[in-house]
Amino acid sequence: MDGDSSLETADSASRPVPPTDDPEWWRSAVIYQIYPRSFADGNGDGIGDLAGVRERLPYLADLGVDAIWFTPWYDSPLADGGYDVADYRRIHPAFGDLGEAEALIRDALALGIRTIIDVVPNHVSDRHRWFQAALAAGPGSPERERFWFRPGRGPAGDEMPTSWRSNFSGDTWTRTTNPDGTPGEWYLHLFSPQQPDLNWNHPEVRREHEDILRFWFDRGVAGVRIDSAALLVKDPALPEVPEQAGPGEHPNQDRDELHDIYRSWRTVADGYPGTRVLVGEIWLPDIERFAMYLRPDELHTAFNFDFLARPWDARELRASIDETLAAHAPVHAPSTWVLSNHDVTRAVTRYGREDSSFAFVKKRKGTPTDLALGLRRARAAALLTAALPGSLYIYQGDELGLPEVEDLPDELREDPMHARSGGVDPGRDGCRVPLPWRGTTPPFGFGPDDSTAAPWLPQPADWAGLTVQAQQSDPSSMLWLYRQALRIRRAEPALGDGSLTWLDAPDGVLAFARGAAFVSATNLSAVPVPLPEHQAILLSSSPLVGGQLPPDSTVWLRTQRPAGGHLTT
Predict the structure, then answer these.
(1) Cα separation of 391 and 222, whole Å?
(2) Is residue 83 within 8 Å of 506, Cβ to Cβ?
(3) Residue closest to 149 by CA, chosen among 166, 132, 136, 135
(4) Average pLDDT score, the chain
(5) What span, in angstroms and rounded, lies between the C-alpha atoms of 232 and 230?
């Protein structure tokens, strides 16, 4: 991971520093996720890049976001969409260079937008200098100690060292070949063979990642999102996964040693002016274990995937909200709310399905959906999540109401989840299709007007009504709804970090107050319901019907809430 930090970089004296006047900005922030390949193409080669993002920064400022989070923009073979990093100190050539990244960070800050970047500490690319050196050095070498190389089991060593299963389906071990052509040791990869796992018991691995944090904090980055944050540490004995692992006893997930790593990272982050935040991607069913990562000397926040995974059901969502807030309270950390990301089926498609919950193991091609229903629910969910206490994440294109693109030709799919499942899992390419900006035919302004290159993934021909241009002046559009919601959220003192008070409501309705004068009500039932007592309607995801809130809708109200305020049928 080493590199020449002077390459393609501006003078250190001109590097931007995030504002220091709001040390708790992250507790209420609206953070917009950018998947660089698919946001905007600045040079006309069909691939999104940093120049394209810089050109669209005014759009993000108008939307009302506080920060942008980039999925990996580093040099990478892109075997897993950039989550196979070859060099953290170089930008992937398709996206630009380090100077372009520094300029983007600076330009965004000038508009009041902070930048958060991804780090992928569990593994690196198999093209990474360290891994190539390990392959060349051979068994027993110091170079191999940075990874998990092991001899195979069985008389000929042709059986994998463990039977662990990959997060991408299939096996977690790949066998090497010795220089003389004979089979060699095996190496561990919890994801694809192109992503060898690092050995976090090795001091060089820890030291290098702390240096990577400093490299980017020096360049004005306001935070890092930590991919697969609960997977870094492995039990050195490499035991098999038990049927019921106790807390901290799983051999490759949520091990107690992780907390010491993140305390060290927090020390690095806290050494910089302006709060530099650490955000964990942590998929854990045990919400108490989840909250341990958010203690005051560890990570600032972590993604709340539980809410995203729940079905469109009032009891389910209420339970998720209550459990999430209760888990965060003892460590005084803000909750985070997200409906989609670059790994998950888009909300418009997901909420239109008979089973509107999400789980990777359930993804299958050809699952039917009602997009009109899904759009209605996604609009309601957008207001619901924006009103909840804590910070809000928006995945690019959700503000346009984009559906999952489910009819991509198999030969164009790049996601290893599709290939390693034998085509059973449709993969994640469908939520990564390039954004539509303007015009009535593909590529919908994804690149410059004179570009002849097709986007790296094809856009549906019927997306003309979903472009930014088509929606920006339409009060009934999803984009207009998001812009209004974020404007109100920024202006409303009770929104963002804080507490909520549940209100009495009919079955299937979630109603809560934020402060003394704001109420949000979401109708997940099958019938219209009256509005709570109010002075004014601030925003509604759907037109009211006879003064009532229709099914699959959310309304925001200005109200002086009476004691024991309630909705009535």
Answers:
(1) 15
(2) no
(3) 135
(4) 92
(5) 6
